[in-house]
Design goal:
Shape: globular
Strand content: under 5%
Number of helices: 7
Number of strands: 0
Largest sheet: none
Order of helices and strands: HHHHHHH
């Protein structure tokens, strides 16, 4: 329990399937901690997975993202998140934007999905 890196790794593994558990694992990691940026990315992914969508276009895209991520289909998940961001940048306090950034951060700059979809995401935002 005292190993923050292990807690972070476990939280990352659980963010999609057990977001509440993932969030509880991250409690000891506070702002300023060397792992705080990665922990915030995991918290945002957990928030995405817990979000109750509505009937709006962005809500439907987030529901698609949640379903894809639960099936471990990260590519269709990020596509749906980008779609949601394109439909309404302010939806759920900017959740699609924050979730896309969290995914890219969690995956890292060299991950194939980050390389493929980061530019597309940036174009949707601007």
């Amino acid at each position: 329990p005292d190993m923050k890196d292990a807690r972070l790794a476990l939280a990352m593994a659980l963010a999609v399937s057990a977001p509440d558990r993932a969030e509880s694992l991250l409690q000891p990691i506070k702002v300023g901690d060397p792992s705080s940026e990665q922990a915030e990315a995991v918290r945002t992914i957990a928030e995405l997975m817990k979000h109750e969508t509505d009937g709006s276009a962005s809500g439907e895209a987030i529901a698609k993202a949640q379903a894809a991520l639960k099936q471990r289909d990260s590519e269709n998940g990020i596509k749906a998140i980008i779609e949601a961001a394109g439909k309404d940048k302010s939806y759920a306090k900017g959740l699609p934007r924050r979730a896309a950034i969290a995914c890219f951060h969690a995956w890292g700059n060299d991950h194939p999905l980050t390389k493929t979809y980061r530019r597309q995401f940036d174009m949707v935002l601007y």
